[in-house]
Every structure is written in C-alpha cells, then in structure tokens.
Design goal:
Strands 3-2-1-6-7-8-9 form a seven-stranded parallel β-sheet, with helices on both faces. The protein has a six-stranded parallel β-sheet with strand order 12-11-10-13-14-15, with helices on both faces. The termini are close together. It has 393 residues and is an alpha/beta fold. The chain has two domains: 218 residues, Glycogen Phosphorylase B (Rossmann fold), CATH 3.40.50; 159 residues, Rossmann fold (3-Layer(aba) Sandwich).
C-alpha cells in the first residue's frame, strides 16, 4: 500500500519516530512518502529517504530558559495556514496515498479528511490548552478555541496512536486528556524509537559515562554551562556533551579531561548505549529513547513548557529518573547525577522498561495496525466498484 507520513517539524522527536515507522513500512514492501519541513526534512533526507516539502504549521519561540507562548502564537499566525492547506491538498493529489499517518501535523489531518482518506494521528499530548492557562482572558479564550479544534480532530481521525508505554506505565499520561469515546480507541504502541538496542554497537567510552543532550545555545545555555561546572567538580565521571551546531567547541580552550564536546551527533544511539545516564530537556521522544535502552534520565524541562514539565514529573513518579529546574545549583546537579548512577532500584526500573519496549516493538505494532485497515478499505472498494481518493486496483 501507499502511505504518506506527515511530520510536525517542531522538534526532532516527531521526525525520528516517523522515520522509524517509515523504515518498518518500507521493509515490509509498502510505498512510503514523507512530508516535512525545516531541519526535520533535512533529517529524513540524510537518512536516505525522499521527502516532500510541507508548509510549517507551528512556530515555537523561546527565551531565558522558557517557551514564550504569546510570541509563538503570533509567529504561527503570521505564517498563515490557508495557503498551507492548499499546498498539502496538492501534495495529497500528487502522491495519491491510500493511508495517511500524521504526527502532530493538524493541517495534514484536515486535508486528508477533505479528500476522504483514512488518517492515523500520532500524538503524545492532547491537552494543549494548558499552555494558555496563565495568560489573560483573551489568551485563555484562544486556548479554549484551540481545545475545540483539536478535540474535533481527534473525533475525525481513524485512530489515535500514542507512541508511549501502555497504561499504567505511560510516561506522558499527565499530558493526555481524551474524551471518553476517544480514550477507548487510543492505541498505545510503545516507544517508537529509530533504533533497537540489539542493532547498536556501543562506543568505547570511559565509565561511568553521562550523555548530555542539552545544547549550549539559546535559552538552554545556562544549563549547559552548569554541566561543564559539574564535570569539573568530580572528574571521576565522564561526559559527552552535545554543544549544538550553533556553538563552536573551539571557544572552550581548557576543557577538563573528562569532557568531550560534540557540535552535532549524527547517530546518538552508540553514545546512548555506552552511557549510564542521559541529561536532557523534557522532550518525550528523547526520554522514550533512553528508557528503551534502559538508561535513566536527569531532565531539565524548559520553563513554562507544561508538556515537558509533565514528562519530567512522569520520570520521577515512575522511578526512571529525576527532574531539576534551571535554578538548580552545580552541587545539586552533581548530587542528582551520583544518585542516578548509584541507585539500584532506578536501574532495575529502567531495565524493565527496556524489556517492555522490546516486547511491544512499536514500529511493527503500528504497521500491523495500518495493514488490516487498508485491507478493509480495499475489500469495500472492490465490493462496490468504487474508486475513491487514493484507491488503486
């Protein structure tokens, strides 16, 4: 069957998990088209897959350690989505998919339903109105309007897929708020991770080893700088720090011997498998990757980013890691790192999550979910002689 995967380009988490699904579908003999934009599109193309250009849907803006939602909304509105919808409809006509999978890309759902195509919606947050709760009356009203819109989307899609562990182990459960009729049909696939544990050869890194995925630019730079300070406080712990493409590692003239800086990691999984701890923001996909590899997480969620804060809280409640704020001192960070490296209970918990991830095998589970649906559409088309959008004999 022919499948079009729409990818929300705000954050590489959406991109990596969609690439994992696309790879599985391609391996099973299906024809797969990707739609993405920005660095998300470049990521998929670097993996060797042809990708169609999508119009951006959401523009995230942040400063001083937090997400600035008002500026994000204004920047998104400036982009204008009316022309974007026409572009997506044109792409659907050109690729002529039989099934659409949309990862948090709402325009793709709307366009697909206009063309009467089956749509599967991947999402790890369904209560986006919480972003607006601390604004003024007008801003809260906008949040209520957005809630009506996305709830209508959830009612229209053929299935909602949450790429997380099933309940009661769902890490993002604080970010989920489906209507009762929808919640009964939500499919918890398990972590949708680009690489499996057994596929990865670990790098020969010095132990104990901590992998920090907090870049040293923008509003996350204060935490990056503190982690460098922490590395100096105890040189028996080794670190690989992702500085980010916008920060030249050469500006650091006297790094301690236990620190390696990388401006960009093309494939983070060999580093992940060789590490005993991951330091990261509160992004869902990064946490899923770490737990799938049996690695605890020390999370620094972006301030005022309710989704990330809820994910970080889920880490602590589940016993899979800890959450610290941007206000944490270097001494507090070092104490938490040592605790996570030494806590046997946490190590046992994340090992169980690794094993559960392998059992669930999310890419295969989602592929199997899509295939029966396509067979049902094909049988009905052949029975009635219909040639609806996307159907081919």
């Amino acid at each position: 069957m022919r499948i079009l995967i729409f990818i929300c380009g705000e954050g590489l988490g959406h991109t990596s998990r969609c690439t994992a699904l696309g790879r599985e579908l391609l391996a099973a003999g299906h024809e797969v088209h990707f739609g993405a934009y920005g660095y998300s599109k470049k990521f998929v193309e670097r993996k060797g897959y042809k990708t169609h250009e999508l119009p951006p849907e959401i523009k995230l803006v942040g400063a001083s350690g937090g997400l600035d939602l008002k500026k994000s909304v204004l920047e998104t509105l400036k982009g204008g989505n009316a022309a974007g919808l026409l572009k997506v409809l044109k792409l659907l006509k050109e690729t002529d998919p039989e099934i659409v999978v949309s990862d948090s890309y709402f325009t793709g759902v709307l366009a697909s339903k206009i063309r009467k195509l089956p749509v599967y919606f991947i999402v790890n947050q369904s209560n986006m109105e919480v972003f607006f709760k601390n604004g003024g009356i007008a801003f809260q009203g906008l949040g209520s309007l957005i809630k009506l819109v996305y709830r209508d989307v959830f009612r229209r899609v053929d299935r909602v897929i949450v790429p997380d562990y099933p309940l009661p182990f769902t890490l993002c459960k604080l970010n989920l708020d489906f209507e009762s009729q929808i919640s009964k049909e939500v499919f918890f696939s398990g972590p949708l991770v680009l690489k499996k544990y057994d596929e990865v050869t670990p790098l020969p890194l010095k132990n104990p080893h901590v992998l920090s995925l907090i870049g040293g630019f923008g509003y996350r730079k204060p935490i990056f700088d503190k982690i460098l300070e922490v590395a100096n406080l105890d040189r028996s712990i080794n670190y690989t720090l992702l500085s980010g493409p916008n920060l030249d590692p050469s500006v650091f003239s006297s790094l301690p011997a236990n620190v390696t800086l990388k401006p960009f990691i093309e494939d983070q999984f060999p580093y992940l498998k060789a590490s005993e701890l991951v330091i990261a923001p509160g992004g869902h996909s990064t946490i899923m990757e770490a737990l799938s590899f049996g690695i605890p997480v020390l999370s620094f969620p972006d301030m005022k980013h309710f989704e990330q804060e809820s994910n970080a809280k889920g880490l602590e409640v589940g016993g899979f890691g800890k959450s610290l704020s941007y206000e944490a001192s270097s001494a507090q960070i070092l104490s938490s790192i040592k605790e996570l490296l030494e806590d046997k209970k946490i190590r046992e918990n994340v090992k169980r999550m690794k094993n559960l991830s392998e059992e669930l095998n999310a890419p295969v589970a989602i592929r199997q979910l899509l295939e029966p649906k396509q067979k049902a559409y094909s049988r009905e088309a052949k029975r009635t002689g219909a040639k609806g959008p996307g159907f081919h004999e």
